[in-house]
């Protein structure tokens, strides 16, 4: 089958022969060229012989482990842009954060599911090809954010829809170019901290327990922690940390209220909520736009959402539906609010 958009050269590194063959078979069936290595030293030799487009890398191996191999590859100019997916049986957050620190792009937990493996490989290769000109560390984070949501069919595409609508609203409000960039990139990265939330909670069909809600809410702090070391995107941290704050102070993680919540975070929060309402989720089918508008207006009425931003957002969507030109330069930007 001719699938040029999916084709790529993948290096599989695992000291377990059965695991290597399972991965090889799954990738070959989708048209990928696959090279195998059974340890860290052999992996570095294979990369030197022919640079792959993506690496599936086991963490726990004799000799050079996955962390060491990843650190060497990411620290070398010729190989630093190769996406690396760690193969691991570990689910501890600290282990994942260590992987991110050495440059890992994503994680695949053993035993892996074929559909999840292919989704993550496809996602990372797509993002790599679209963003080859991005600064490497930013590229890693954008690829990771995309890969996190790609494994869930209910949320695939969510981050780019949020980023697109948030940017449109920022333009409508005549926010500065810096604010608009925060809305676009912050929209893409706003849920990156969900790497620290168990899949069983993210994909749960029923109501979350109080304990599960607490675990879900920690994603904003984890996201900030992941992105904070990269100085070039620190201006995005307010969006990542505060997009679940509420106008009346009832949100998390800091209970900010009113205009102490950065305007970029308020915008992404509203758009994030809207997109969740109008798309299918494991716990309910999608709502109509009018039903979503009613919920947003109710939030503006009870003080949980910024009423001016809700009104501007609803008007923007309605005008787009009718093909009307947007009215620019109104709302919070006119008051000179900071991001």
Q: State the order of secondary-structure elements, H for helix, E for strand.
A: EHEHEHEHEHHHHHHHHHHH
Average pLDDT reading: 86
The rough form would be described as elongated
* Overall tally of domains: 2
Strand content: 5-15%
| CATH class type of the largest domain | Mainly Alpha
Q: What is the strand arrangement across the widest sheet?
A: 2-1-3-4-5
* Global structural class: alpha/beta
CATH topology of the largest domain: Hypothetical protein af1432
Just name the CATH architecture of the largest domain: Orthogonal Bundle
Return residue spans where pLDDT drops below 50 for at least 5 consecutive residues.
1-6, 326-336
Total helical segments: 15
Percent helix range: 40-55%
Q: Helices, strands, pairings?
A:
Layout lengths: L8 E5 L3 H12 L4 E5 L2 H10 L4 E5 L7 H9 L9 E5 L4 H9 L4 E4 L4 H17 L5 H15 L7 H15 L4 H13 L9 H4 L7 H8 L1 H9 L9 H6 L20 H15 L11 H14 L4 H16 L17
Parallel strand pairs: 1-2, 1-3, 3-4, 4-5
């Amino acid at each position: 089958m001719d699938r040029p958009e999916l084709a790529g050269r993948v290096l599989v590194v695992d000291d377990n022969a059965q695991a290597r063959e399972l991965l090889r078979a799954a990738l070959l069936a989708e048209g990928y060229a696959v090279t195998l290595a059974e340890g860290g030293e052999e992996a570095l030799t294979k990369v030197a012989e022919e640079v792959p487009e993506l690496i599936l890398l086991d963490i726990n191996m004799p000799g050079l482990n996955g962390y060491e191999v990843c650190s060497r590859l990411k620290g070398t100019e010729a190989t630093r842009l190769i996406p690396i997916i760690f193969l691991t049986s570990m689910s501890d957050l600290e282990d994942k954060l260590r992987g991110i620190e050495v440059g890992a792009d994503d994680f695949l937990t053993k035993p892996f599911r074929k559909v999840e493996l292919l989704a993550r490989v496809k996602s990372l290769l797509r993002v790599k090809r679209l963003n080859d000109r991005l600064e490497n560390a930013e590229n890693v984070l954008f690829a990771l954010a995309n890969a996190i949501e790609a494994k869930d069919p209910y949320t695939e595409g969510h981050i780019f829809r949020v980023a697109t609508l948030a940017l449109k609203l920022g333009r409508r409000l005549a926010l500065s170019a810096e604010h608009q960039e925060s809305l676009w990139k912050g929209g893409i990265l706003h849920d990156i901290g969900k790497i620290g939330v168990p899949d069983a909670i993210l994909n749960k069909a029923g109501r979350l327990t109080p304990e599960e809600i607490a675990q879900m809410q920690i994603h904003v702090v984890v996201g900030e922690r992941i992105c904070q070391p990269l100085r070039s995107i620190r201006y995005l941290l307010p969006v990542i940390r505060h997009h679940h704050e509420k106008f009346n102070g009832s949100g998390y993680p800091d209970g900010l209220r009113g205009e102490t919540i950065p305007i970029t975070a308020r915008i992404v929060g509203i758009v994030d909520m809207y997109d969740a309402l109008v798309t299918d989720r494991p716990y309910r089918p999608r709502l109509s736009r009018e039903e979503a508008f009613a919920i947003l207006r109710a939030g503006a009425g009870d003080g949980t959402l910024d009423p001016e931003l809700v009104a501007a957002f609803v008007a923007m969507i309605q005008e787009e539906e009718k093909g009307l030109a947007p009215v620019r330069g109104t709302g919070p930007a006119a008051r000179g609010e900071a991001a």
